Amino acid sequence: MIKKHPAPPVPAGAIPQRAGDSFAIVPRLPSGIITADQLEALARAIRQYDIPIAKLTSGQRIALVGIKAEDVPGVWAGLDMGEGRAVKHGVHYVQACPGTAACAYGLQDSLTLGTRLEDMFNALDLPAKVKVGVSGCPMCCGESYVRDIGLVGRKKGWTVVFGGNAGGRPRVGDELASGLSADEALDLVGRALAHYAANAKKCQRTARFVEARGIESVREALGLAKIQE
Ligand code: SF4
Fold it and tell me: How many domains does the chain have?
């Protein structure tokens, strides 16, 4: 009988790769904004540790892939960046379009709201992964309606969307409220996530949670008015 070798220990802050002999890391990058210092530190690490793949992810982050186990602590030490969630349940990323900071069509400041949102909810443990999309206008370049949490900027303020998903069983999220200030939108997102955390099954994404419970039940729990037919 062939004896199976136990899997090598996973270094802190690393994700095992398929072959099991190298690791990936995903630094936090709220709203996809990166500084010159961070870019230089990433480039230094890639050269110093001969990292074969630096990948811009769909969540507007930069994954470093193919790192040797013994190099992982040194790579992290040189980056001075937090760890973004990539496997553990919770808010994985907040993607944000340029909004009023850099887009002629922008109606709201999506970059600032996205960064605030990531700061507020990054450490929250949730039943499954949660993806957030923030768009500065209804054209929705931040893919807000197909994210677990979506925010859409309109003339009169923010619309909060809940329960969207762009995966194999796609779902368009439900609007919870519109015309909100940034603070009001963050408060509603916090309450929606708390309700989801307290009531969803383990590994149940928000889309499946809303399908199981019904959006009216979610609205009622959040103290929102009934949708008029
Ligand atoms: S969603 Fe609107 S503000 Fe954001 S990038 Fe697209 S067009 Fe510009």
Answer: 2
Residue with CA at minimum distance from ligand 1 atom 3: 106
> Rounded to the nearest whole angstrom, what is the distance from the C-alpha of residue 1 to the centroid of ligand 1?
60
Residue 206 lies in a domain: yes
Q: Which residues line ligand 1 (CB under 6 A)?
A: 97-99, 103, 105-106, 135-137, 139-141
Q: With H, G, I as helix, E, B as strand and everything else as coil, classify residue 206.
A: helix
For residue 48, give every residue at least 6 positions away whose Cβ sits within 8 Å of its Cβ, in sequence order, or none.
Answer: 74, 78
218: which 2 tokens?
């979610």
Tens digits of residue pLDDT in 125-136: 999 999 999 999
pLDDT category of residue 3 using cuts at 50, 70 and 90: low
73, 133: one domain? no
Q: Is residue 158 part of a domain?
A: yes
Range of the domain at 46: 15-79
pLDDT in tens, 77-106: 999 898 887 778 999 999 999 999 999 999
Going from the Cα of 114 to the center of ligand 1, the distance in angstroms, rounded, reads 14
Residue 154 confidence (pLDDT): 98
Q: Clarify whether residues 53 and 144 are in a common domain.
A: no
Burial letters for 153-175: b for 16+ Cβ neighbours within 10 Å, e otherwise? bbeebbbbbbbbbbeeeebebbb
User: How much distance in Å is there from the Cα of 134 to the middle of ligand 1?
Assistant: 10
